[in-house]
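Reviewer has doubts. Consider these tokens.
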Amino acid sequence: MSPRPHSPRPLWWLAATLGTILPAVAADQPQWGRAWDRNLVSAERGLPDHFDPTNGTNVKWTAELGTETYSSPIVANGRVYISTNNEHPRDPNRTGDRGVLLCLDEKDGHLIWQHAVPKRELDPYYDWPKTGMSSPVTVEGHRVYQVNNRGEVVCLDDRGMANGNDGPFLDEGRYLQPRTKDGTQTNSTVGPLDADILWTFNLTAEVGIWSHDGAHASILIDGDFLYLNTGTGVDNTHRVIRTPDAPSLVVLDKRTGKLLAREREGIAPNIFHCTWSSPALGKVGGHRTLVFAGGNGVVYGFEPLSKRPPEGTVLTLQKRWQLEFDSDHPPGDIHGFLSNRREGPSNIYGMPVLDDGRIYVAGGGDWFWGKNQSWLKCLSFPGGKSEVAPTIQWSRAIGRHTMSTPAISQGRIYVTDSQYALHCIRQSDGEVLWTHDLGGEMWASALVADGKVYVGTRRGTLWVLRDAPSREVISRVDLPAPINSTVTAANRTLYVTTMSRIYAVSRN
């Protein structure tokens, strides 16, 4: 039967229609997720819903990366930043296994400069071979902040060496040379393709972390402060914490890289695998709060810094509250549950997302070593006040494991899991509105932009679905390599990254 001529349209249709006639919003994307709440939702409009790399439809440009790429693209000041490995060297002076940050021109993808950092020595579990760099950058003004593959926080000049070697760091030639067996470094000539380092902070030497596999952190900027997870974790046995006093969360001065504050909550001894979740900042429970998901499966609320401490002083971050994400795991030594797929502790890979005074966290059994359970949970504050710990307002079981950061749009939450599923969950009560079988393992999170949900799989398929309360597939694009990272939208362009290529996609 045909619908009545004037049958009412659902509200989502009206919102989607208005999005096509309102002025387009075009802006940079200077960090992973929306600042500061970390929501993976973009205000961009006029984005394509499909592209074809074989005939060039809607492909603005494409560029070769390395062979393993895990970070999401960041776009700022006419530049696109993407981290990868060095299996396709760009500079004959920077060969061998390295983590590489590429700075590409936003117009056509040509290389402006690169930061090609040698891998760590001694133990491959410090900095896993061939994985390159995994952390996205955060850009503010002409400064580019990143945690590199060596577990060092670096501040780079976005102009590279084009405006000279700015200080105070002036030893790029030595820094970019691989260490010899005795730990020394020779000098090398710095060329026009090299990055200009302004300062560095070595998390291993300065705060005693124990790196595991690969650093992954998305630095959050608030005023003069950089907030970041440290990437400390287990050793190569996966059963021992070598540095139990190491912090999981630190604060640095963005101007100098000096350590200003750290947590002292005793997180490290109970880290099941590693500290890979980055913090969020926003108003929850009536107070502006730094929200952090530790590698011990506990969600913390800290008081953010209000002013810089006296010179030489390292403050202790003041905890407001904490909540165990999964309180049902058996008691005892958490490392005794290694490879136990039935029971054990939970871990959190993605970022917490803050929205309307509540906190949304996806987590569960560790992807590589833990039990086969995961959830999306909504944390809220009784009476709307954060003087007490939040409670779990609702919990929704999803697939076996998840690395996802939730994306929240118009009362709906999109989250992925390892059972090949994209879930659309009602924000108010956690009810599942729909699920979609993506046909491939998921390491990436979904991005919502322009009335669409973009999500890629490790089988190399980019799915485009309608941001709506009922499931509607718009298109799928099959690419020749796995997609491990979240799609980025900036300046009316989508940036889709596979293991080996980046595609800038916009309407032809």
Residues 460 and 480 are 6 Å apart (CA to CA). Residues 1-67+454-508 form one domain.
